[in-house]
Write a structure and sequence with these properties.
Layout: H1 16-24, H2 31-48, H3 52-55, E1 63-66, H4 73-84, E2 88-92, H5 108-128, H6 130-145, H7 175-191, E3 199-205, H8 227-234, E4 239-245, H9 246-261, H10 264-278, E5 280-284, H11 301-318, E6 321-324, E7 327-330, E8 335-340, H12 352-357, E9 360-363, H13 369-377, H14 383-392, E10 396-400, H15 402-418, H16 425-441, E11 449-453, H17 455-462, H18 469-475
Parallel strand pairs: 1-8, 1-9, 2-5, 5-8, 10-11
Antiparallel strand pairs: 3-4, 6-7
The structure holds adenosine-5'-triphosphate and magnesium ion (MG).
Length: 476
């Protein structure tokens, strides 16, 4: 840490209460969980802004979110990462127990996280160089339309602020001058959007070279050696000509120019720092690797591998160096948020060392009918808002009456308790069933106007499904 006082661009300076307020705009209820994650996030800011002598000693307080499916565990972690502008990755702990994974590659989560951070930083940098890249793209498109003439004379052709028309004498103008004038005319046309559909031919990266996977001997990835990259750099870049509209070519060239303008080394360095000081790893289904101590007489394969996964995870969570193709990553200050339903296993079934690394346990609440009603309407990305926006795109305004929303919430709660509790996910299945017919008939039969979804309509669409347990099992 070179300069402790440097206010990092990516440092988000939100207080715990502000963080909770932000989370509230997306997630209903779950006060305790929001509080814990807000503290964890603020603690990172506190650490980065604390005395250098102790900064490296301050460890993150990793969290376990405990709760049934569909109550917002993943959603909270995801929103938190967005808020913090932090590199974020979600992994399923159980994936590491699958055949072929055992004993291998728990570290891959850190590698993937680093990859995400690199893309994130590069995207931001590209955004910053966009104005410059756009200028260069304009030149390149002009070059395609009006190839510049070789400059023969010493007298360089007029600069962008070229002479006014009165001074221009086409009879005596040099080739360069004529060329320059034509270019300027086309520049104006381009800027006025008059040439968007004109076809140009540009060199594009030949596909195929990129998508070809090369598998190296096992273990090479661990050492941070990427065969693909090595070979990719050796073989010449293959390009081929492709014809496209200027509007398309502009997009393509913009990406290419922006890529050229950014400092890749700086991007990687910044990405590494971000991963190390603000990365968040969300480990889902941690309960699936709990247990397996053999105490319950369940010795054998899966148990061994479950404990194995925990043991593999331990050094990463405790803090160690993981080598990635971008360099070493210190995991000491990465925040780990684990989650699980813990129906059968308990947090105390995790190996003690791992338990110690997740000192904060939060129980998430089951969602009530009232929560469902709020989830349907309040979050910024609420389902009803999503459907309204989609239908609006067809030129139709759709409204839900209050009793319709209450009815959907009631049905969701009822089916959750009678069939299976899948939390807020139930709202997705119910709402899509309610709206299916409309989504199908718009715009063929219903072309314009206002639609009101009321309780009667909801009941009509769900008629028979709720009372018939077999049907609701499959459809709702
Ligand atoms: N409290 C909540 N407020 C708003 N939306 C919610 C809430 N809980 C769940 N949802 C919505 O329900 C869906 C599923 O939630 P999420 O992915 O967070 O479940 P989960 O708790 O991680 O479940 P699982 O244990 O199955 O992974 C998401 O689309 C989310 O937006
Ligand atoms: Mg989840």
């Amino acid at each position: 840490m070179s300069n402790p006082n440097k206010e990092k661009e990516f440092e988000v300076n939100l207080t715990p209460r502000q963080i909770v307020d932000e989370l509230d705009t997306y997630i209903i209820g779950q006060k305790e969980a929001k509080k814990s994650v807000s503290i964890a996030l603020r603690n990172r800011w506190r650490r980065l802004n604390s005395d250098a002598a102790i900064r490296d000693e301050i460890l993150p307080n990793n969290i376990i979110l405990i709760g049934p499916t569909g109550v917002g565990k993943t959603e909270i972690a995801r929103r938190l990462a967005k808020l913090a502008k932090a590199p974020f990755i979600k992994v399923e702990a159980s994936k590491f127990t699958e055949v072929g994974y055992v004993g291998r590659d728990v570290e891959s989560m850190i590698r993937d996280l680093t990859e995400i951070a690199v893309s994130m930083v590069k995207a931001e940098m590209q955004e910053r160089v966009k104005p410059k890249a756009e200028e260069q793209v304009e030149e390149r498109i002009l070059d395609l339309l009006i190839p510049p003439v070789k400059k023969k004379s010493k007298k360089s052709p007029s600069q962008p602020g070229f002479q006014a028309d009165e001074d221009f004498d086409p009879e005596n103008a040099s080739t360069e001058e004529l060329n320059e004038r034509t270019r300027e005319k086309f520049r104006q046309k381009l800027r006025n959007g008059e040439l968007e559909d004109r076809k140009v031919e540009i060199d594009v990266q030949a596909s195929g070279t990129k998508s070809m996977q090369i598998f190296g001997p096992a273990g090479m990835e661990e050492m941070g050696i990427n065969l693909q990259d090595m070979l990719g750099n050796l073989s010449p870049k293959k390009t081929k000509k492709r014809e496209m509209k200027i509007s398309e070519a502009r997009e393509y060239l913009l990406a290419e120019e922006a890529e050229k303008l950014i400092d890749h080394e700086a991007a990687v360095a910044e990405a590494i720092e971000r991963v190390q000081s603000s990365g968040i790893v969300f480990i889902d289904e941690i309960d699936k690797v709990a247990g397996g101590t053999g105490k319950q007489g369940q010795s054998g394969g899966p148990d061994v591998s479950r404990q194995g996964v925990q043991r593999d995870m331990l050094p990463i969570v405790e803090g160690s160096n993981v080598s990635t193709k971008h360099g070493m990553i210190k995991t000491d200050h990465i925040l780990f948020i684990a989650s699980g339903a813990f129906h059968t296993a308990k947090p105390s079934d995790l190996i003690p060392e791992l338990q110690g690394r997740f000192p904060i346990r939060v129980e998430m609440d089951s969602l009530t009918e009232e929560d469902f009603y709020n989830i349907l309407t309040r979050p910024r990305n609420a389902l009803t808002k999503q459907y309204q926006a989609m239908i609006k795109s067809e030129g139709i305004d759709m409204e839900f009456t209050d009793d319709a929303l209450k009815e959907i919430a009631r049905v969701a709660a009822e089916i959750n308790s009678s069939v299976e509790n899948i939390g807020a996910r139930r709202l997705h299945t119910i709402l899509s069933t309610v709206l299916e017919e409309l989504l199908y008939t718009i715009p063929d039969d219903i072309k314009e106007g206002n639609l009101t979804i009321d309780k009667e309509y909801v009941n009509k669409r769900l008629d028979g499904l709720i009372t018939n347990r077999d049907l609701s099992q499959y459809i709702l």
